[in-house]
Amino acid sequence: MLSIHLFSKVLGEGLNEIKAHHLLFDNAIDINPRLGTITLNEKRMALLSVEALGLLRKELITTLSMDRAKGFLLRLGWASGFNDGSCIEEMHDWNSKKELILAGPSLHTLEGLVTVEPDVLELSDDKFYLSGNWYHSFEAEEHIRHFGCCDEGVCWILIGYVKGYLEKTLGKSVYIYEQQCMGKGDEKCYFVAQTVEEHVPEYQALLRYFQTELLATELDKMYSEVHSLNQSIKRSEEIHQKLTNLLLDGDRLSSLLEVLSRVLGRSVVIERGKVLASVFYREEDRRVYQETISNETFIISANKVNLGKLIIIGDQPLNQEEQMIIQRSLSVFAIQLYTQRMMVQLTWKKKVDFFEELLEGRLDTKSFLESAQHLFEFDIEKRNRVIVIKSESEEKNESIRLVLNAAYPTIDMFMKECYLVLILPTGLEEKTTIYDTLSHMESLIKKEIKKIQYYIGIGRISNSIVEIGDSYQEAFRICDFLKEAYPKESKRAISDQIDPIMLFLRSMNPKELIVFYEKTLGHLIEYDRQNESSLVLTLKHYLDNNGNINMTAQQLNLSIPGLRYRMEKIESLCQVDLKTGNGRFHCQIAILVYYMMKVI
Question: What domains can you pick out in the chain, each with its CATH number?
Fold first, then answer.
C-alpha cells in the first residue's frame, strides 16, 4: 500500500525535486484579482459552485437521456484531466514518473471536486495499476440530490478526469472504472485505473463513451430519433385510420387483416381457440405458424375481456414503427371482435330466453315454433337431444365452445352463464351414435385444452317442441348433479343411465340430493371401504326384497342371525330404522344414487 506521503519520502531525488504533496493551492493556482482571472500554468480556469454543475448534470440527463449524458460528462472530465496533466507536467521538473502521476490526485483535490486518497500504485515498463478512494464526490452528492441512488457508478466526470490525466502523463491508453460508488448506495467511492490491455472485461462497455462526439452530434441524433418517432406515429395513425374506415364500412375481419399484412410485409393470424382469420404473406409461413417458430403474439382485449391473439410471423424482430402500427391496429381488432362477441351473446340470450319461456309455458306452440325457426338451425319438431357442458370457468367453457364449434359447425351451440349448451339434430340421437359422438367430443377437448375438468349432462331424446324443453332441463340437472357428485374428476352421464333418479333430480336441487345420499350412506360406504365388507350390497338386497329377512338371507347365503347382525350394524351406521317405511324409503333413494354413480 502506498500513499502520497510515502512516495514523497522514498522517491525524491534531491532537495529541489518537486513532490506531489508539495502542490498547494497558493503555489499551483494563480489568482489575479485585478483581471478577475484564475490560471493554472497560464491556462485560465473558473470557479463554479457544485450546485451549478449539479444543475447542468440534471439538464443533460433529462434532455439527452442518462446514457448520452454519461458519455458527454465522461468526455468533459477527460478534457479537464488531460489539460491538467499537460499543465502540471510543464510547470515542474518531474524526475519521477510516480510523483507526476500522484500529482494528479493532489491537483484534483485542490480543485474542490473530490478528496482523493491513493491506495495502490504499481508502475513498471510493462504494467500500470492505480487504485484509490474518492471522498466527498460532488458528482455522487448531486446525482443523489436530483435522481436518488441508481444501480451503477455515477462519478463520470471524475472517471474521465483520471483517464485524461493519466493518458497525458503516462502516454498510454488507460482504463478507469468504479468498484464502489456512493451514487449506487456504497459507503464510499473506490476507483481503479489500469492499462487497456489489462482491464476487467465486465467494464469494457465504458470505453465506447470516450469516442469523440460533440454535443451538437448528440442533439442531432436525438432530433433524428424524434423525427423518426414522429414519422412512425404518423404512419401508425394512417394505418389506424384506414382500418377504422374499413371497420365502419362493415368489412370483415379478414379484410382488416389483409391491410395489416401488406403494411408489415408479414403473415398475420388472429385466433381464439381456433383461427378466426389469417393472411399468409409467404406460403412457408403456414408451416412456421404451425410450429410456432419466430412468432410474436399480442393479446387483443377490451373491458378486461380476452378476445383473442394476434400472431405476427416473420424472420426478423419487429422494429419500432411496426410495433406502433400493431398496437394501434389492436384497438380496431378489439372493437371488431368485441362487437361480434356482443352480437353473439345477444343471440345466446334470445336462445336461453326461448327455453325459459318454453319451460314456463308462457307462449303457445305456434308462437314457439315461429320463434325457434328464427333462432335455431335445427328442426325443433324432429328428434333432437340437448347436451350441457360445464367446466371450472367461463373462459374454459368458451375454449370448449370454440373447439367443438370447429369440429361440429352445423350444431347449434350457445352459452348460458357458465354452461355450454349444444343441440344435436336428427341423425345423432341414437344411443350408439351419441356415445361415439361424446367420446369424440371429449377427445377433442382433452387434446386442445390442457388441464381441464368438465361435466357433460345429456338429456333425453325429444320428438316435439315440448319434449325438447324437458331434454334441456334434464341436461342441466344431470350436469349439476355430476359436479356435486364428482368435484375432482371429469364425468359425463346420459339421462337413460340415471333414469331411476331423474324424478328426484327434476324435483330437488342436485346438491341437496348428494347431501342426502352422503348423510344416509356415507358412514356405511366408509365402513365397507375400511373393512372390505359388503354391507351396502346387503342393504340393497334387503330393500329389493321389501325387507324380507328370509329371502335376503337366502340370496346372500347367510344365516338368519348373521343377517340380523348385519342389519343392526347397517341401522347403526346409517342412523335409520329399517323396520319403518320412512327409513326404508330414505335408504332406497340413497341406494339408487349410489348405484347410479357407480354406473356413470
Answer: 4-213 (3.30.1380.20), 218-344 (3.30.450.40), 363-497 (3.30.70.270), 514-599 (1.10.10.2840)
